[in-house]
Amino acid sequence: MGKPHEQLEAWKTAMQLARSVYQLTTCFPIEERFCLAQQMRRAAVSIPSNIAEGAGRNGNKEFLNFLGIAWGSLAELDTQLQLAVMLNFVSPDHVAFDLADHAGKLLTGLHKKLLTTEY
Questions:
Q1: What CATH number does the domain located at 4-116 have?
Q2: First-to-last C-alpha distance (Å) of the chain
Q3: Burial of 5 (0-12, 13-18, 19+ CB in 10 A)
Q4: For 38-74, what is each residue's pLDDT tens digit?
Q5: How many of the other CB atoms lie within 10 Å of CB of 95?
Q6: Which of 1, 45, 75, 96 could bridge 20 with an S-S bond, Cβ 3.0-4.6 Å?
């Protein structure tokens, strides 16, 4: 059996989102390599990282705190994806948008589950 966070659908989807963002940002203009592209990558990596860190902590209260950080990173990434569309770096129908929406729903579900269970 793997690590606890590896069993979570929210973590799996967030990992897919991070991979998608890395692939997406390779097509950005060179002058954005250390600007928007790097910010997007950091935000994308933060989401599954905080889910994993929270799952490895002692109890739901700490886990919920890390889910809050993951949510913040997802909101940051959503803003950056929208900016990338406005700058014509990416199409609004890129798979990253669907993955981000799905990750948000899974984070919400996980948050609700943790609020109703003891650990």
A1: 1.20.1440.60
A2: 20
A3: buried
A4: 999 999 999 999 999 999 998 899 999 999 999 999 9
A5: 13
A6: 96
